[in-house]
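New to this. Help decode the following:
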Amino acid sequence: MFDASVIAVPPTGLPPLPTGVFRLPLGTPEEQQKGCLTNNSQFEAWTCETSGPPMNLNIIPPGQIPGMQFGAAQLQSSDRIDGTIYGTQPPIMSPQKLVLVADLDDPGRGPAYHFSTHYDKIVVLQSWALPGGVRNGPNKRDFFPNAGFGNGGFRRHNRVEIGDSPWMCIWNNTFIEGFIYANMSTGFALNAASRSGGGGGPPGPSATATPTSTSSGSSSATGAPSSTSGGPGSAPTQNFTPSYPRVVKIEERRLPKPNLAPYCQQLHVFEDGSVHPAQDKNGKYILVTISESDPPLADFSSRTQSSTSSAPMIKARHEATARRHHSASRSVRWNTNYHGVAKRDDPPGSCHCQWVSQ
């Protein structure tokens, strides 16, 4: 657990969390730091950029899993993903215990339900993103006549398509944690409450969420809303997954001494849709070991707060256009929170992502 302390006695009147399966739209990363990469030609291998449908957040209520007082949380792949999207892939994780904490990095957001685990972070990159691989064919990025997607064969640029040779980068044992703020509603939830004439406070448990599942795998990628039947002669009803109504912060970090070095392997998508490892001119698989150096664990725990008078207000901005000539240790974030309390930055030379649903 980073930047958090356990709340032993829950505050009076703390609202319960909505439970079930919800969409978790994260969008542009609030923070992106790539300092652990020591080879600038591999700068693209760590990214916080996401595209495609939002991932799902499964909140399992208290009592369903023994020993979990506040229930459990599970991040899942979206049930609307059709194929593989370039960028960071949704985490696949088993349900993790929720603990009530104070977020020391964002104390103004109030008490939060916290979960954490390690998982293998996967990043899918275009063929040109790393040196040493094979490239897609001429004009492949713009047109592939046999793709069969309609629109005259023009492809969707953020999706892995037939003929692509993507890199799949595996960051073994990446630390991930989430904060679900008990008293903070998202803008979507506040707008919905306003339209329905309700108050602006945190909503109670939702009755519209998809039924909870405790499966440790990702949900089925059908690419279409699920349907249920109300009995003979009735029309199927489509169940659209609602967005989670509380503000959620997700963070990823690389910590020192991972069990395996991160690596990238190049693949190729053939015309029949099958995917196989790409080979170089000598018939060997194309593998690249990522050069990584992480700060000592003590550097994470000893980070000190900057004074609010000297901390510059630097607006977090999108790093999708960052290239190898940028500093690999670049970190962009707000240095003070909404209440003027100083935030703490990750140590120099680390790799870190942060997203906040709003």
Notes: Confidence is low (pLDDT under 50) at residues 137-155, 203-208, 212-238, 304-342. The helical segments are 187-195, 297-301.
